[in-house]
Specification:
alpha+beta; four-stranded antiparallel β-sheet; two-stranded antiparallel ribbon; 2 helices; 20% helix; elongated
Length: 112
């Protein structure tokens, strides 16, 4: 099993969720996060004063899938979240050793 973490632009979240649902992803965790990469933030004007916004709003999507579904999920996220502009985000893939569904006690792929 693998855990896919995707950091994407907030306005792309609904499109990504729908596209993942269409390929059979039944569960995910979504968090509002802030951060920066090469984009480094930007300046904004508020009440006549210019100030630096260091951390940009992003959405972090977490999914745990069976090994055979990883490429399909990653490709779906790439196709749906990509705008071609700086700040599109990143995808991280890590191994998951064990999953347990608390309600039933099911483990591993039965639990996801």
């Amino acid at each position: 099993m693998k855990k896919i973490e995707a950091i994407i632009k907030p306005f792309k979240m609904d499109d990504v969720r729908e596209a993942l649902g269409e390929i059979g992803v039944t569960g995910m965790t979504v968090s509002e996060v802030k951060g920066f990469g090469r984009q480094k933030g930007h300046t904004e004007l508020y009440r006549g004063a210019e100030y630096m916004v260091d951390f940009l709003p992003k959405v972090k999507l977490e999914i745990v899938v069976a090994n055979e579904n990883v490429d399909r999920c990653v490709n779906t996220i790439l196709e749906t979240a990509q705008t071609g502009k700086i700040g599109d985000g990143k995808i991280f893939i890590t191994n998951v050793e064990r999953v347990i569904r608390i309600r039933t006690g099911e483990e591993d792929e039965e639990a996801i």
